Each structure stands twice: as C-alpha cells, then as structure tokens.
Amino acid sequence: MHLDRLILVLETVASAGRPISVPELQKAINLPRPTCYRLVQTLTEHRLLEADDSGSRYVIGYRLTRLAVLGQTDVDIHRAAAPIMQEAAVEFGEAVFLSRFRNGGVEIIHVEMPRDPARSFIHPGLGFRPMHACSCSKVIAAFGDESFREEILTGPMKIYTEQTKCSADLLRAEFDAIQDTGFAECVEEIELGVSSVAAPIRVGSIGVTFSIGATGPVRRFTEERRTEVGAQLMKLAGKVATALSL
Fold it and tell me: Which parts of the chain register pLDDT below 70?
C-alpha cells in the first residue's frame, strides 16, 4: 500500500540519526529509486520531511515533530521535566511550574515545590490561566504567531487587580518587551502579593508550546530577583526542551 511505503520512508529517515539522501534511502528500503523520489517529494510537500542545508538529504519535518510533541501526554511530560524542575525549586526556594498550550489556551500542568519545611512558598495551582495576565501564558503568546496575539489583544480581558493590564497597547508593548528580554513577568496582576516569572520552551522547530515558570511573594520577587530568576529559567527551558525531545 502507498501509506505503508510512506510510513516506511519516515521510519527509515527517523532511525538514521542523521540527514539521509534518497540513494541511501533506496538502498535501505529496497524500493525502485523513482518510487523513493516520489515518496520523498510527497512527504516533503506536506512538511513531514524536510531537506537539510545541502538540499539533497532529508530529516524529519516540522509537522511530524509537532505532532509527536503535542501528542505527548501530561504524564510523559511530567516524567521528562520533573527532575529539572525539582532541582530548580530547591535552588530557588520557590514553586516551579510547567505550562502547555492547548485548546486555545495555556494551562499549568505540573508544579514542583521546594523541600525546606521551614520555608513558606506560593503554589500557583493547576489549570488554565488568563492569556493577558499570567507570565506562563504571556510568554507563550509573545513568541507565538502574530494572529494569535491579536486574538488576545482584541478579546475580553478580565480585571483581577489594579495591576492587571487590560489595554491592547500596553499588552502589545509588553509582548515586544518579552521578546527582547526572553522571559515574562506577572507582578500582582492576578492576585495581590503574588508575582511570577516564566520563560519559553522551544522544542525543535515547532515553536513555543510550553513554558516554565517560578512564583513567589512580591517581598521576595523584587525586580532584581525576577530578572535573576528569568535568566535562570531561560537556561532551564533549554534543558526541559532537550528532555521533551528525547
């Protein structure tokens, strides 16, 4: 069947561990060379395969990578990210949380907490967060498609506190600032006395569909501390991205 052959090509390219040429592919799967070229062309047109810089060798494409990552269950993601997050929670002395984009929103799916029983901390809770007023969602929006950001800017924005930004112009400027700094902040925008910082997690070429953040009381999350935590979270985001890819 044609589908069987397409799957065979994808499996062969994926298992090669490096960019592979059509002659190498043809030798591996023992199909006529014209057939291999047609299969590769079809898969490339649908972005299931992509040519490397040489233009003559192929790797797994954007759409297949995206499907694989988005298809991961929360349990799989927890298992991959939890050790990195736990280490960070101990180092920060604050709760560290992981969020993912799905169903048009951003949801906190996992939280790791500091282990010092004598230290108080703030648990961010689980579930969906407002796209205009939480660091974890703002950072995903800032690095997302422009059309996605415009949906947020033109949509309803609930006021939670006096610090909540409900102006499209203010939020647009903040998205630009997030792109410059590499992380997002939420300073008493949802709840008074509570701040958070989040960094984008980029998995391969699929863009930002996850974020990692830390939350704490404003008395500890000063501007200087938020900048410091943001820089550390950006490094942690790279580690989590690697773990999710594997």
Answer: 1, 65-72, 204-206, 246
